[in-house]
Amino acid sequence: MELLKPSTLFLVILSLTMNSMGSTHGPNKGGYWPSWSIDFSPSSIDTTLFTHVYYAFLSPNNITFKFEINDHTAFLLKNFTTSLYKKTPPVKTMFSIGGGSFSSKTFSRMALGHDSRKSFILSTIEVARKFEFDGVDLDWEFPQTPIDMANFGHLLHEWRVAVKKEAKLTSKPQLLLSAATYYKPEVTLDDIYRMYPVESINKNLDWINAMCYDYHGSWDLSATGTLAALYDPNSNVTTSYGLQSWIKAKIHREKLVMGLPLYGRTWQLKDPTLYGIGAPAIAVGPGNEGAMPYVEVQEFNAQNNAKVVFDEPTVSYYSVAGTSWIGYDDVRSVKLKIEYARSLEIGGYFFWAIDGDQEWKISRQASETWLD
Ligand SMILES: *[C@@H]1O[C@H](CO)[C@@H](O)[C@H](O)[C@H]1NC(C)=O
Ligand SMILES: *[C@@H]1O[C@H](CO)[C@@H](O)[C@H](O)[C@H]1NC(C)=O
Ligand SMILES: *[C@@H]1O[C@H](CO)[C@@H](O)[C@H](O)[C@H]1NC(C)=O
Where does the record place the GH18 domain (predicted)? Predict the structure, then answer.
C-alpha cells in the first residue's frame, strides 16, 4: 500500500473533520436582484459576498399557472444566469415567483387543486432548466387562510417529488426549492389565524427566507416605527420573536434564513421636536410611497445634514431632518443581527434587495460577520 504524502493526509483529516462537524457548506448568504433595477446589472454583483442570488420576480399566468416568458424577460433571465456563472466565485442562482405585488389569490387558486399545482410545478422546472437556474423560490405573500396553508404544504410535497423525479431522469443535480415567508410561522391578518405547514417545509424545502422586515410602514401613518427591529420592549413584532417562533414551531434551524432590509421606511413627523420611535406622524416621508433604498437614505442624510440615531433597545437606526423621519438598518445593526442569528445556529441571512447597497457596505459587513 502506498503511503499518503503528508499534504494529502492533511487534506483527508481536514475533510473528515469538516464532515464530522456537519459543516461542509457554510451559511446561506442570499440577495434578491430586482429585474427592474435598470442601472444595476447582474454582472456588477460582488459574488464573494453571497452564496445565492434570486431573480425577482416571475409570475405565472393567472389561469393556466404556467410561465409565459416574452423575449425581453428571456433576455433578462439568460443574462442573469450567464453573468453570475461567469463570476469567481460563482453563486447559486434562483428565480423567485410572485412577490409583494402579486395576487395572493392567484397562488391560492393554483394551490387548491392537484392539476393546477401540477401545471405550475412542471412549468417552474421547465423554466429553471431552460434558463439554467439552480433552483426556484416561491414568494407567496401570504397564504390567507388555513386552507391556503394546507395547500401550500401539499404543493411543497408535490414539488419535491417532481424535482427528485426530474433529477433522476436527467441525471442533473436536483433543483433547489425555497420559499419566502412571513417573519413568524403564525399569521393573524384580517382576523384570520393560520400557521405555516412546518413539517412539510422541513421535509420538502431546502430553506425558507423569513421576511424579517416591514414591521411598520406607510400602512400606519399615525406614528413612526421600526422597519425591522431585533428587539422591542413593548411588542412581539420583532426579528428575535419571529426567529424564535420558527424555532419553537420546530423548523430545522439550518433551514431558517433571516431577512434583512436594504431600504428604509419614512414618515413625516407631526412635530419636528418629537422624533423618537413611536413619535406622532401625519404622512409618508420622502422616497417612493414612504420607502427608500439604503443608498438613497445615505444620500438623503448627507444632503440634509440629518441627525442619525442608533437605537440600542431595538437595534435599529433612524434619521431625522426637519419633519422627515427614516427608519432603516445600517452596518452596526446588521452586524448585531447577524451575530444574533449565528448564536441561534440558523441557516444564514438574505437581503431585500441588493441594488440598495451599491458600495456593498452592508453586504460586506454581513459576510465578514458570518464566515464559515
Ligand atoms: C387575470 O389577469 C388578467 C390580466 O391582468 C385580469 O384581467 C383578470 O381579471 C385576471 N383573472 C383572474 C381570475 O384573476
Ligand atoms: C448582460 O446584459 C448587459 C447589458 O445589456 C450586457 O452588457 C452584458 O454583456 C450581458 N451579459 C451577458 C453574459 O450576456
Ligand atoms: C409576546 O408573546 C408571548 C408569548 O407568545 C406572550 O406571552 C406575550 O404576552 C407577548 N407580548 C406582547 C407584548 O404582546
Answer: 27-372
